[in-house]
């Protein structure tokens, strides 16, 4: 009887271990894909590159925030505009890179997660962002002063909302694609951001190293476009192969 009980316990332990392994294997398999892209690990590729700048960088004038003492106190040093800024390594930040069209199967369903734009230190963060048609834009404020969110699309109606300190986030959706939509604050005229409304989730924004990376792109040949606020736009064709990252560098000249 004792032997039978030991056998039953061992069998139960084996089944529990097997169930745990199945759950772990399932979690690992699903972790490989990028949510919302429909691309699975091993069947997709990527695009990565650097956006270079050649020539004399623009001279940027400091932003004066004395109009609102709260804004002035929030900054510890000189604040320069983001538009026209060149990184110390000769590359460009705030460049919006996105797939315009291509032969691959590009998903068009908007993610459920919102894209957040934050008002902090009387600036918009991030300065450049992307969002899909139908995806929620969530605007929040971390500042103890009032802000005004003025979104100015070329197509459709603009919207203008005042946000008091401590009030709930402002939520909106875009129904048509547009590159790019400016966002301003009528109370603090130096505040500005840009949002790219796109029809697929394959886009990126360069940072302080001038690099971008777009992951989990279905194999195919695509038109890759790039927008900058100061130096214009460009595009090039890029071929993406499964399991590989295609290189796509851009160079903008001083104007």
Quick synopsis:
14% of the residues lie in helices and 39% in strands. It is mainly beta and 255 residues long.
Walk me through the topology.
Layout: H1 2-31, E1 45-54, H2 69-74, E2 96-102, E3 115-120, E4 123-125, E5 128-132, E6 136-141, E7 147-151, E8 159-163, E9 170-173, E10 178-184, E11 192-198, E12 203-205, E13 211-217, E14 220-228, E15 232-240, E16 245-247, E17 250-253
Parallel strand pairs: 1-16, 1-17, 3-6, 5-11
Antiparallel strand pairs: 1-13, 2-12, 2-14, 3-4, 6-9, 7-8, 7-10, 10-11, 14-15
What does this structure look like?
This protein has 255 residues and is mainly β. The chain has two domains: 1-31; 45-253, Immunoglobulin-like (Sandwich). It contains two helices and 17 strands. A hairpin with a 3-residue loop joins strand 14 and strand 15 (232-240). The longest helix has 30 residues, at 2-31. The protein is globular and about 55 Å long. The model is unreliable at 1-40 (pLDDT under 50).
